[in-house]
Design goal:
CATH superfamily: tt1808, chain A
Strand order of the largest sheet: 3-6-8-9-10-11
Number of strands: 13
Oligomer: single chain
Helix content: 10-25%
CATH architecture: Alpha-Beta Complex
CATH class: Alpha Beta
Number of helices: 4
Largest sheet: 6 strands, mixed
């Protein structure tokens, strides 16, 4: 799967009645930006060009690292993640990584359970949701790593589950080097995300030691 350079426009009206998750999946096609929360459909706004550029950059880097290390699979939005019960949530993160050991959670059109890594790229429309509702949900679902990328503020936050299964901030700010545990040592330079234009993928792969 590859990251789209442009996401479809959320133009459909959400149903007025509550839906089961199965009914939601039947209603929600690949051209509809929506999430499922307690039986209700919540529409999601289209992403900006910068949002999409950063999403595509991260998708490529993470996918190539995971492929080279045979770690698992990477999916970019739009792709649904149904969080485990008792959470009644069908979320659509900007990026998810699913390790080999959890490949059994994959279904043809969604991930049935928690990902091993979730990335959300914050927009003005999603700021409160990504830092509030989703932060709590992903923590409760036991997602080991949660990355929050804010292009407007040029700030990134990297969380890991720590004591008592609570997220702990490992690195935050505009610069720095984050080393992922879930992705077996992937080193991400935060300042890459704010460069205009973004770094060339081949240069990044050389720094990561994936190519010579």
């Amino acid at each position: 799967m590859t990251a789209d350079t442009e996401r479809p426009v959320a133009s459909r009206e959400p149903p007025a009645t509550r839906l089961s998750y199965e009914e939601f999946l039947e209603w929600c096609d690949e051209d509809t930006l929506a999430e499922w929360v307690d039986g209700e459909v919540r529409m999601v706004s289209p992403a900006s060009e910068r949002h999409q550029a950063i999403a595509g950059f991260l998708f490529t880097v993470v996918q190539l690292w995971a492929e080279a290390r045979e770690l698992g699979v990477v999916y970019a939005a739009p792709f649904q993640m149904r969080l485990p019960k008792p959470l009644e949530r069908g979320r659509e993160p900007d990026l998810i990584f699913v390790s080999q050991v959890h490949r059994d959670r994959m279904r043809p059109t969604f991930l049935d359970g928690a990902a091993d890594l979730v990335v959300e790229i914050v927009s003005p429309e999603s700021f409160a949701r990504d830092r509030g509702e989703k932060f709590v949900e992903y923590e409760q679902a036991g997602i080991p790593e949660y990355w929050l990328i804010d292009p407007d503020r040029e700030q990134a936050e990297f969380y890991r589950l720590g004591d008592e299964s609570r997220y702990q901030l490992v690195l935050g700010g505009r610069t720095g080097l984050y080393t992922s545990q879930v992705l077996s040592g992937l080193r991400l330079r935060v300042e890459w995300l704010w460069q205009e234009p973004l770094p060339r993928i081949m240069d990044v792969l050389r720094e990561l030691g994936l190519v010579s």
